Structures are given as C-alpha cells and as structure tokens.
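Customer ticket, subject: "Can you confirm the structure for Cytochrome B561?"

Message body: Hello, I'm evaluating your service for our small team and ran a test protein. I'd like someone to confirm that this is what the system normally returns, since I don't have a reference to compare against.
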Amino acid sequence: MMQQSSDGPIQYTEYFAWDAPTRWFHWINALSVLGLIGTGVVILNDDALGLSASGKIALKSVHASFGYVMAINLLWRFVWAFFGNRYARWRAIAPGGPGYPAALRGYVMSFLSGQPQQFVGHNPLARIGVSLIFLLLLVQLATGLVIVGTDLFWPPFGHWFAQWVAAPGVDPAAVQPGASAVINEASYQAMRAFRGPFVEIHELAFYALAVVITLHIIAVVSTELHEGGAITSAMFTGRKILTRKPPDAT
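Agent reply: Thanks for trying us out. I re-ran your input and got the following:
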C-alpha cells in the first residue's frame, strides 16, 4: 500500500509481530494489574475508608485472587519466552546481547533526529522498560505470596505459616484470619515480624510499578504519534504496519 506525501510516495508494509499467546498475556496482565492497583490503593487506605475487619479480609481476598491470575500469567509468559516467535523470545525482550549498545544509541539518535527507527518487536529503549516491568512484577509475585500466606493463610506458604502460629494442640487447618482463639500470640507476633520486610518491599515495588506503567503508557502513545506502526492495534491483531525498513525484520 502506498500513500503520497510531500517527500514522495510512502510505502506501507505489514509485518507479523505478536503471536497469540503474547497478545493474550498482555491483556490478561493489564487487567489483573489494574485490579491489583485498584484493590491495593483501597487496602493502603482501609482505615481512612472505615473498612470493617471482615471487609478488609474480603478485600485482601479479591486482591490476592488478582495476584494469582497475574502470577500464573507471568510465569507462563516467562516459559513462552523460550518457545514463542522471534519477537516474543528473551533475546528480543531483555536488554543486552551482541550489538545492543549500538542499537540503543542508534535508536535514540534516530528518535532525536525526528526520523525514529521502526521496529517489528520492541525497540531497544522499550526492551529496558519491558524488562523493568517484568522484574517489578516478579518482585510483587514473590513478596505477595508470602504476604497472602501470612494474612489469609493461602497457598503456597499458608499452611506453613498456620503451623507456625497455631496454638498447641490446634490443627493448623483451623487457623483462619481473625481466629485469635486458635493462635499462639507469641508465635503470631514473631510471624508478623518476619513478614514486615516483605510488606515494605511489596509496597515500594507497588509504587514503582505504578510509575513505570504510567511511563510505559506515555511511551506507547509517544511512539504511536512519532513513529506510527499501529503499535496499540498490533496487540489485538498481532500485525504492525511500518513505513521504513525495520532493523529487526526477518
């Protein structure tokens, strides 16, 4: 497909970028992270909002459920990065590898010149952003599993924490949130002290993730406006429409 411009005809070429599993991961991840952020904000302000004890438990249960969806989806994406198409694989996602520094410099210079390079997959700068998002999600996954185990006594660590805090002679399966009668207070306080650093890291990573996701959205919009390529629609169709030869084309 061609279109006339002041500089001559523009040639549009369609490239297949994102395979179906990658697209499904993206939108499931987006929805689950939005759910986590929304419920997380309420949890952080639960006292100011006047939530009851049972309301807090219910909200944490919803938050944890979103977390399990995110965790399974993320771990699946890490596996798919070994088997997906060339643009879904680790070497096209993670920053680094032969030629990466030069590719990053080249992309930045082209962007500053007003004629940014177009990529079928992630451009070199986007690879840094995507990897940072993955890292923060992994931190949230690891710390969240500990927190849900200490708060709700849910898998995979919940039974172990229940054994830790159960009063003598009490079946750990009877340990539930708020069931103070079956809990050894000294053990419970020790468990809460253990969980403290995980909560702090989880909260800090929460704020960092919110900032990075905001920057990611801004970058997508900016790239769409300056480079074109149907970046947003490509996460639905799998295909990008580019006007210049991409450095990562097959």
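A couple of notes from the result: The mean pLDDT is 91. The radius of gyration is 23 Å. Feel free to reply with more questions.
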